[in-house]
């Protein structure tokens, strides 16, 4: 294989956009900035305190098991998310394209399963399959570092099953998300046939894991997009997002019936998918300049909770039951019907989101038709994010991850939020994808091996 095969996969491939996303991208220039999103503020009427890492939490997480790691695992501090598309491969022996893609998928799952198991256990992943003679077997960037609760989680996109010729085993609820009226999706940050989530408490071990996985993809799959996220060190407290709000208050606690009912696949799914789940992934851009210049009252009314304690505006503490009948002196409900909390409260899911902050992404060459004297445009306006004006502006927000047994629950909530959520004035979807997350891996059996039974 040519040496530049490793370099090429650093750039997302040119490809036809998914029809939904292509349509929305073409409409984005004329669309408004509001969008309905599930921001994981917390919804259920009664919730347990969040599962967090304690001082006694071990450094090594298990890769093998009934379920994949990185789902019920207590949230780590850093994460990388990436999507890949399968390559067709060379026309060796005259095999049809579909058969070559299926073989590539099986080879990649074997490589990735072995690498994930090794790295999570703190052992070497072995040499890259395309190393030059004399090249080191590993980058060495994680030498001497503990795994730091590293987890690697894999997913399969809606397009994958047709490509590998196993549409008969496609999970029943895996389908592309519909268009939402307030989306502003970028095709470069959306979709994907394969998904990788890498989480851990040390960003260097995460970087090492990503390079180790990506380095085994050339010739089999190409990188489509990647995103990086972080969480603060909050100890036993619920983490906060970049709005300063507590995020994940209503999550079901792993090991409970509520968790199992919200997350793991229904019994009517294909037998191979037992123990699996679904992931809805969204890149949500937050308009922090606008948020930061809003009043505290406006912010809390948009969310439905107090910023300082996370308590619902109906009273109590962070985990108090929600009271939508309680009214204030003006006779209005204390929790507004169009608040984010009111609209997402009945959605059963595990929210496992991360913050991102890419700061100001300014084009190196300003000669792009961007003029400060353009009507309606002023560099003195602190709320103007410059989107669509020749550079990306201030790109910060949330990498929203919802693990749930039926993505249709997310769709129903998203449709309600697109129509009425007060938070729409401060956020927009810029990336979107949905994946089936297969069940866990057993020793000697790569991920999703059941899609190609032994004969």
UniProtKB/TrEMBL annotation:
Domain of life where this protein originates: Bacteria
SUPFAM superfamilies noted in UniProt: Dimeric alpha+beta barrel
Domain (Dyp-type peroxidase N-terminal) ranges: 68-230
Annotated segments matching region Disordered: 367-389
Transmembrane annotation, as ranges: 22-43
Family to which this protein belongs: Belongs to the DyP-type peroxidase family.
This protein's name: Dyp-type peroxidase
């Amino acid at each position: 294989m040519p040496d530049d095969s490793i370099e090429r996969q650093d750039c997302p491939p040119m490809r036809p956009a998914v029809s939904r996303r292509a349509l929305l991208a073409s409409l984005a220039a004329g669309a408004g900035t509001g969008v309905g999103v599930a921001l994981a503020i917390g919804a259920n009427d009664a919730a347990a305190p969040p599962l967090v890492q304690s001082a006694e939490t071990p450094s090594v997480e298990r890769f093998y098991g009934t379920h994949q790691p990185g789902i019920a695992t207590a949230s780590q501090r850093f994460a990388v998310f990436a999507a890949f598309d399968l390559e067709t491969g060379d026309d060796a022996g005259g095999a049809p394209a579909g058969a070559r893609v299926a073989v590539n998928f099986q080879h990649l799952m074997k490589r990735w399963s072995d690498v994930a198991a090794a790295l999570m256990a703190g052992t070497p992943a072995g040499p890259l399959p395309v190393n030059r003679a004399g090249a080191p077997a590993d980058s060495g960037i994680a030498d001497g570092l503990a795994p730091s609760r590293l987890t690697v989680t894999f997913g399969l996109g809606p397009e994958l099953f047709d490509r590998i010729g196993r549409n008969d085993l496609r999970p029943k609820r895996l389908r592309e998300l519909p268009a939402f009226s307030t989306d502003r999706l970028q095709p470069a940050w959306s979709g994907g046939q394969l998904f990788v989530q890498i989480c851990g408490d040390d960003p260097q071990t995460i970087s090492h894991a990503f390079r180790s996985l990506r380095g085994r993809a050339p010739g089999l799959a190409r990188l489509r997009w990647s995103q990086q996220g972080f969480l603060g060190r909050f100890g036993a407290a619920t983490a906060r997002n970049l709005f300063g709000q507590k995020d994940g208050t209503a999550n079901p606690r792993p090991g409970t019936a509520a968790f199992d009912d919200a997350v793991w696949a229904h019994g009517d799914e294909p037998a191979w998918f037992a123990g699996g789940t679904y992931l809805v992934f969204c890149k949500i851009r937050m308009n922090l300049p606008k948020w930061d210049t809003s009043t505290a009252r406006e912010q809390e009314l948009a969310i439905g909770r107090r910023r300082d304690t996370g308590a619902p505006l109906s009273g109590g503490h962070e985990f108090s039951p929600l009271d939508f009948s309680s009214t204030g002196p003006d006779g209005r409900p204390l929790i507004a019907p169009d608040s984010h909390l009111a609209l997402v409260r009945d959605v059963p899911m595990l929210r496992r989101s991360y913050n991102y902050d890419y700061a100001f992404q300014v084009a190196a060459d300003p000669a792009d038709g961007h003029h400060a004297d353009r009507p309606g445009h002023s560099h003195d306006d602190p709320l103007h994010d410059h989107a669509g004006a020749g550079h990306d502006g201030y790109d910060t927000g949330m990498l929203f991850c919802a693990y749930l047994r039926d993505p249709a629950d997310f769709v129903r909530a998203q449709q309600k939020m697109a129509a009425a959520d007060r938070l729409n004035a401060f956020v927009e979807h810029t990336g979107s994808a949905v994946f089936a997350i297969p069940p866990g891996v057993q020793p000697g059996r790569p991920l999703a091996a059941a899609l190609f039974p032994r004969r």
